[in-house]
Amino acid sequence: METTASGTSHPASAIADAQPKTVGRLFFIDNIRVFLTILVLLHHFMIIYAHSGGWYYRVGQPDFVTNAFGSWFCGINQAYFMGLFLLISAYFVPGSYDRKGAWRFFKDRLIRLGIPLALYSWVINPFFVYALQYGEINKPFWQYFPGDFFKGNALIGGGPLWFVEVLLIFSLVYVLWRRYAPSRPAAANMEASFPGNGTIAVFALLLGVAGFLVRLVFAMDAYTFEPLNLQFPFFAQYIALFIVGLVAYRRNWLLAMPDQTGRFWMRLSIVLILLWPPLVIACGAIEDDSLLKGGLHWQALVYALWEASTCVGMCISVIYIFRRSFNLK
Predict the structure, then answer these.
(1) Is the pLDDT of residue 88 over 90?
(2) Which residues of 28-42 are buried (b: 16+ CB within 10 A; e: fewer)?
(3) Which of 24, 63, 100, 290 has its CA 20 to 30 A from that of 109?
(4) Rounded (5°) CA angle 196-198-204
(5) pLDDT confidence of 269, banded at 50, 70, 90?
(6) Residues 21, 252: contact at Cβ < 8 Å?
(7) What CA–CA distance (Å, rounded) separates 43 from 59?
(8) pLDDT tens digits for 165-202?
């Protein structure tokens, strides 16, 4: 049971009562965040010059090699980097909630995430869109915004700030779960051995199947839910890895992961990365990639399984490499 300042108690999962071992600041996690941030920038630069995705602005007409390399680069990134971002973000959520309690935790999240989200969605993004589409709009900004702007753009979470929006939503769900989930007997020690390779492989398989099922309804190129700009085709991964991050904190998995596990999945990730071009060719995506993106097609299932395996392998690999070699200020 969790007790409030007034002395009253309310149900909460006993997971909150178990605290992981702490070893001070984990610099390798800070460095993973820097790496992922740089990767996001490179990802969008690649879209601009290689036309390997959707973005505000594109330059020129890339040749086949440039487009192919850009598609490979962005395909690998999309398979894991935002999911890993959510895992790392979730890793710090339970400890923050434990220290602050429900209201202060969510109030801090609203300030840290909600203000940038609102500023970008309702100030910066409209100016970007207006400037880039000025020739097609042919009206003053004060006539374009907010009326015409919101007819073709998300109400909130437009552009790259969809991630902040998702993190805010997931944080709210976590607060509700901690406050209202039925209480359970407290565990003396929530730390557990890191999952074995077989367990991890089953998780990747289930993640791939879940992604395939979601894409029966929401194909990869139709991900925008207009009011909130939510990328539903990838939500199975995002939800699963956010939960993994919560569990990883309680069970100290980022520090408990054996080196041999990291090496195994790093080698497998290299194979999966190199497998992307022949996989895309075998699925006929050079001529038409729509079958990969969703629907009841074997190509969509194969790609979802590849994506989930790459996601799991790369998340483990990046954590292993940075913990081993980049745990520095």
Answers:
(1) yes
(2) bbbbbeebbeebbee
(3) 24
(4) 105
(5) very high
(6) yes
(7) 15
(8) 999 999 999 999 998 887 654 443 455 689 999 999 99
Q: Using an 8 Å Cβ cutoff, are 304 and 211 in contact?
A: yes
pLDDT given for residue 170 in this prediction: 96
User: In this structure, what are the phi and psi dihedrals at residue 123, rounded to the nearest 5 degrees?
Assistant: -125, -65
Q: Which residues of 49-59 are buried (b: 16+ CB within 10 A; e: fewer)?
A: ebbbbeebeee
Q: Write out the two tokens for 171.
A: 């944080």
Name the phi and psi angles at 14, rounded to 5. Answer: -70, -10
Rounded CA separation 19/272 (Å) = 36
The C-alpha atoms of residue 162 and residue 55 are separated, in whole angstroms, by 13
Average pLDDT over residues 241-261: 95
Considering only CA atoms, which of 22, 194, 193, 167 is closest in space to residue 93? 167
Two structure tokens written together for 315 = 């998340």
pTM of the prediction?
Answer: 0.87
As a residue count, the chain comes to: 329
Amino acid identity at 95: G
Tens digits of per-residue pLDDT, 195-249?
999 999 999 999 999 999 999 999 987 656 667 888 889 999 999 999 999 999 9
Residue pointed to by tokens 């395939």: 212
Q: Is the N-terminal amide bond of 146 cis, ω within 30° of 0?
A: yes
Amino acid at 138: N
In terms of pLDDT, which residue wins out, 14 or 249?
249
What one-letter code names the amino acid at 8?
A: T
Is 106:175 a contact under the CB 8 Å cutoff?
Answer: yes
